[in-house]
Amino acid sequence: MGKALEGIRVLDLTQYEAGCACTQMLAWLGAEVLKIEPPAGEPGRATLSDRPDMDGYYFLLLNANKKSVTLDLKRERGRALFEAMVPRADVVVENFGPGTMDRLGLGYDALRRINLRIVFASIKGFGSKGPYAEYKSFEWISQAMGGSMSLTGEPDGTPMRVTAGLGDSGSGLHCAIGILAAILQRQATGVGQYVEVAQQDSVINLVRVNFRDHYPQDRPVPRRGNRVYNTAPCNLYRCAPGGPNDYIYIHAASIEMWRALMRIVGRPEYGEDPRFITRQKRWPYVEEIDQIIEAWTVTRTKGEAMEILAGAGVPCGAVLDTGELLANPHLLERGMMVPVDHPQRGHFTMPGNPVHLSDSPTEVTPAPLLGEHTAEVLAALLGQTPADLEALRADRVI
What we know:
- The chain is an alpha/beta fold.
- 38% of the residues lie in helices and 14% in strands.
- It has 2 domains: 9-206 and 330-394, 3-Layer(aba) Sandwich (Rossmann fold); 234-238 and 247-318, formyl-coa transferase, domain 3 (2-Layer Sandwich), CATH 3.30.1540.10.
- Helix 2 links the parallel strand 2 (32-37) and strand 3.
- The longest helix is centred in the middle third of the chain and has 22 residues, at 168-189.
- The radius of gyration is 25 Å and the shape is elongated.
């Protein structure tokens, strides 16, 4: 069988993480994603790069499986070429600042007049309506405005960000879901539609289960560090030899898990004590319970502790750093960590597609060099000749 999104063509105007995460997922699933970049390149190519002469790993991690086409949309000829591509495309995705596409004359209303079937997707910080619509956003702003920051950190500490891309990759994946839904609906209606995702909304969706603790007492949910309210044991515990990431997270929710954990740590009587029959009843004793568990974990490495606990049916997870993840045999076997060969960066391993389809296996290809596919795409889609392309280069349109 072919790939799941084979035959779907995406015009990718995205930059940095949020939009690029969306289009990379579509590319992983088999869509032809044409990354339309200015001749100087999408700004994410140079962001956080360790070398001024090469694309940064930041860019490589977000743009696998795509084709790069340079096109200056600020020039009339560049816009005309883009408009000529729209009838041959299924999806347009952008995450520019508010109003940018309309100022270019390439907003949804303009493009749907060219192609009624086009699915036009936008990722913004706060969406296109409401008091915040004109405000710009980045990852940490969306975490602050979406509730994640207020929930993260120690009880007596300041709000903290998480390094996982809740606002960026989170909004990108939400957008990919919206695009797929619009493509599916188009099969019935014959027309496309506008898909909008706000980073703030995406973060709220990702933290929504925390509202369960707001409603009973009608007050904001406090920070609790690594613990979970009214649930014990559910915490991070130190392991040997005591390095910065020598920890294991344990969450024994059911009575069977609790009893297995207590047998392992040498306190089987706690497993039979009626005071500890549920995780909620155990909560008042959380300090005592955590001390008992950590007295056992500190005598073992996180790998040893995880093997023993998980083998007994106790949910747990060692804290793995980036190096341990890249070399993790489980992730390598599953294809979540994938070796690639980049023409500039050479051989390295990167995270692959987390979505697995039984009849549509994912192939991960390196992110494209700037303009690597410009001639190929413009010739195939728009019939541009070598002379046409040379003239476009001379005019700095491509």
